[in-house]
Design brief:
- The structure holds two protein chains of two kinds.
- Chain A is α/β, with parallel strands linked by helices.
- Chain A has helices at 38-48, 63-69, 109-114, 134-142, 197-209, 217-221, 244-253, 259-263, and strands spanning 5-10, 31-32, 36-37, 53-57, 83-87, 119-123, 127-129, 147-152, 163-167, 173-178, 188-196, 229-233, 238-240, 280-282, 287-289, 291-293, 298-299, 302-304, 307-308, 313-314, 319-321, 324-325, 330-331, 336-338, 340-342, 347-348, 353-355, 362-364.
- In chain A, a hairpin with a 5-residue loop joins strand 9 and strand 10 (173-178).
- In chain B, 20% of the residues lie in helices and 29% in strands.
- Chain B is built from nine helices and 32 strands.
- In chain B, the strands form eight sheets. A seven-stranded mixed sheet of chain B has the order 5-4-1-6-11-8-12.
- The chains are: A alpha/beta, B alpha/beta.
- The interface between A and B is large, with 36 and 35 residues.
């Protein structure tokens, strides 16, 4: 467990757009895995690692995120002395209309300057994993590092944005490349960084005073010629959500093993907002196979290799294959859907046929009636 | 801190007719309906009726119940002013005692209630499955100018002699109360839901406590006493789904009602949510080759086998080739490969060994046969057990550690404490 460490989650990334899915919400507020939002994984990793003070930097479209996080009670972060801090852009009369990009960290300096924790973990929100940071902490001290970043060997596999690390044999970073055409290695940052809080504040302060724009997580890594930056390899399942296609592929991956157990690792629960849905009800005529189903679903039709979020209705004679259906959407009688992502509160009317391709899923935007 | 209405939930009873299910857990904390514990219904009714101060009177095996209710957060009862209060019996300078009966339990908490200086006190049971708008009951209570209002439920005439029956006039005013009458004059059964004007109840409780001949029971003593004194007692007719899950058969039946009569209790009603403490588990997984039909499932289940017409609580695993039919599996139950379950209630965390055959026809010669508590070929398996591979347990049986069998005949290979949550 990490003692004396605070957290920061960068809830959005200007480089990542998921079309219809990110239109109504920040990246980290996109639903994932049946009953979660993307941010639940980063938050739960921190909470499960013993971190009790967590800031969430947001940029715009944060209504859905705020609604999800609330007081932080679902993560036990509704504390008097510590807890959850939502950090919308810091705007005053001088900076009005000049807010930096969504992943810019300069706005959070006030909170982290005032905290007393010795260490900080900063996490992006486009990588989903179930990780405990205890080993990262141990590695950091063993290497006597100033900054340690988690990486795995995905290379540029997830498509842009990716941050490729060039490292010495001992793991010290000697080069940081964003979206390189010819990657020097397959070591790709997972966007999780561990360092002393004071160093973080100092780097931010310097960057602000020099008028640097774009002070993001990669900016911290690029300090490798000034401080000792090390890479720590994460060997578990990490799902990179960089595009709608990624989102679709990675969701389908968690239907199989070992990804499913890895991501929903039972010893380390993933916390999320509680909805108090009824149990899922399976009718006498339904057929469900190889699918993750959430509470509140009512299934009368056929569901194959799909993921249903909370409160989804699949009516009789409807057939879903390779589909992802968000909360409270309604699939009417006789629909046939294949390779489709359906956002929240949609109604697919009787007999509608929507066939996407595995390499190009159809996305139905929030609240649509088809 | 004055409250208009305060609810007191009687949750201290053992529920001995549920057999081994309640050896370590009080009845209100018994898992029910896939996602719930029995007490969730009463607690959610309070929240949904706008009652924000609820005393939960516990006594028998309170660990699971106390842990479950906690600070009342899942029911929005974690309040600065009011909220959920666990009220166990306590020691005093003189006259310390367990809660000897329902009225005595409330009597011992007069000071608690006085703290909130309520005008009305609602006395509830923690072991019924129903959805009732207590605020409507209060509304009727105010409109009729009653001193006490008692919720009543129309039961079939041939069953009326099993209940406490309220004989009321055409306006709904109670003229007589009969406990389990041989020849019932009415079929209006008391649901054990009482709304009292607090000053009146307060006095009645004190007087009843002083009465050495009294059993200190609401139905038997307090209600007849108030009637005798000429107070105005009114009925409040309730016609929705209501089940006292007091026996193994009624527990099984009311679980099956969720599947067979889903509109009656309507758990999906968004305007009247039944809240529960969340287990924090992922969505449930149905594997390739699994078959799930006519069933209710919740978070954390993993199904590789065949589940039909069954109610599964969180984190249940049904392995490949196993079949589960007409059964109720409580949280964390594991059914190993090839096992067959029919009409079985399995307690929390129990592991059913490979190729076991549980349920089916009754066999009076079987050591686990249970004639008194089990009926209708329902088999009950205690929580925390591991059953031997290939075990055979017939219908109308109850498997728990208290059964006296030779080691060689025992189907139990291991026992762990039943988890509190």
């Amino acid at each position: 467990m990490l003692r004396n460490c605070c957290g920061l989650i960068v809830a959005d990334d200007r480089r990542i757009q998921l079309g219809e899915l990110s239109r109504p919400r920040a990246l980290s507020a996109i639903p994932f895995g049946g009953r979660y939002r993307i941010i639940d994984f980063a938050l739960s990793n921190m909470v499960n690692s013993g971190i009790k003070t967590i800031g969430v930097s947001t940029y715009n479209k944060y209504q859905s995120l705020m609604d999800h996080l609330g007081t932080g009670a679902a993560w036990d972060l509704d504390r008097k002395t510590q807890g959850l801090y939502l950090l919308p852009p810091f705007i005053n009369s001088e900076s009005y209309g000049m807010v930096g990009p969504s992943d810019d960290l300069s706005g959070v300096i006030n909170l982290y300057r005032d905290l007393k924790h010795e260490y900080i973990i900063i996490s992006s929100s486009n990588v989903l994993m179930n990780a405990n940071f205890t080993e990262l902490d141990a590695f950091h001290h063993e290497r006597n590092a100033d900054i340690t970043v988690m990486y795995n060997r995905d290379g540029a596999k997830g498509g842009p944005p990716n941050t490729i690390l060039d490292m010495t044999r001992l793991g010290r970073i000697k080069g940081v490349y964003e979206n390189p055409l010819n990657p020097v290695s397959n070591r790709s940052s997972l966007g999780v960084v561990f360092m002393r809080r004071e160093l973080f504040v100092q780097i931010l302060g310097d960057a602000i005073s020099r008028g640097e724009s774009n002070v993001n997580i990669d900016y911290l890594l690029k300090q490798y010629d000034r401080v000792r930056v090390y890479g720590y390899e994460f060997k578990g399942t990490a799902l990179r959500i960089n595009s709608t296609q990624n989102y679709f592929n990675e969701t389908m991956r968690v239907l199989s093993e070992p990804e499913r157990s890895d991501i929903f690792w039972p010893e380390q629960p993933v916390f999320t907002k509680v909805k108090d849905e009824a149990p899922a009800i399976y009718s006498d005529s339904c057929v469900v196979e190889d699918s993750l189903i959430s509470d509140g679903c009512l299934i009368q039709g056929a569901v194959h290799h799909s993921m249903l979020f909370r409160g989804v209705t699949v009516s009789g004679q409807a057939k879903l294959t390779n589909c992802i259906v968000f909360q409270d959407s309604h699939i009417s009688e006789g629909c046939e859907l294949e390779n489709v992502i359906i956002d929240k509160d949609c109604i697919i009317r009787p007999g509608i046929k929507l066939i996407g391709q595995a390499a190009y899923p159809v996305v139905i935007g929030k609240g649509s009636v088809v | 801190m004055k409250k208009e209405l305060l609810a007191m939930i009687l949750a201290g009873g053992q529920g001995s007719r549920l057999g081994c299910l309640t050896t370590e857990v009080a009845k209100p904390a018994v898992p029910f309906g896939s996602r719930y514990r029995i007490i969730d219904f009463t607690l959610s009714n309070c929240t949904n009726s706008g009652i924000d101060t609820v005393g939960v009177l516990t006594q028998y095996q309170p660990l699971a119940l106390n842990t479950y209710v906690g600070n009342g957060h899942p029911w929005d009862l974690d309040r600065s002013n009011g909220g959920a209060f666990i009220l166990p019996p306590y020691q005093q300078v003189a006259g310390s005692d367990w809660y000897t009966n329902t009225a005595n339990a409330i009597y011992q908490n007069i000071r608690f209630i006085d703290n909130f200086d309520p005008a009305y006190v609602l006395v509830l049971s923690g072991d019924h499955v129903y959805k009732m708008r207590y605020s409507s009951m209060l509304q009727e209570h105010l409109e009729s100018g009653a001193d006490t209002t008692i919720a009543v439920y129309e039961v079939p005439w041939d069953e009326a002699s099993r209940f406490g029956i309220m004989n009321a006039d055409e306006n709904g005013r109670i003229v007589e109360f009969e406990e389990k009458p041989a020849k019932p004059k009415s079929n209006l059964a008391s649901m054990g839901i009482y709304l009292f004007n607090w000053p009146l109840l307060r006095r009645a409780l004190i007087e009843d406590e002083a009465d050495e001949n009294s059993d200190h029971d609401f139905g038997k003593n307090i209600i007849p006493k108030l009637l005798g004194e000429g107070h105005k007692l009114m009925t409040y007719r309730f016609s929705g789904y209501w089940k006292d899950v007091g026996t193994i058969r009624s527990l099984w039946e009311s679980n099956m009602d969720i599947l067979d009569r889903p509109d009656d209790i309507d758990l999906r009603d968004k305007s009247w949510r039944i809240y529960s403490r969340n287990p924090v588990k992922p969505a449930h997984y149905i594997a390739s080759g699994a078959r799930v039909r006519g069933s209710a499932l919740t978070d954390g289940c993993q199904i590789f086998g065949d589940v039909e017409h069954s109610v599964l609580s969180h984190s249940v695993i049904v392995e490949k080739g196993a079949t589960v039919r007409d059964s109720v599996l409580m949280p964390g139950v594991i059914v190993r490969e090839g096992a067959r379950l029919e009409k079985v209630i399995v307690g929390m965390g129990t592991v059913i060994g490979r190729d076991a055959v549980i349920g089916g026809r009754s066999d009076t010669s079987n050591p686990y046969h249970e004639a008194r508590l089990c009926s209708d070929n329902i088999t009950l398996i205690d929580g925390g057990l591991t059953l031997r591979d290939g075990s055979v347990v017939p219908g109308n049986a109850m498997v728990h550690n208290g059964v006296d069998v030779k080691d060689a005949d025992s189907v139990i290979v291991d026992t762990e404490p039943v988890p509190a949550l």
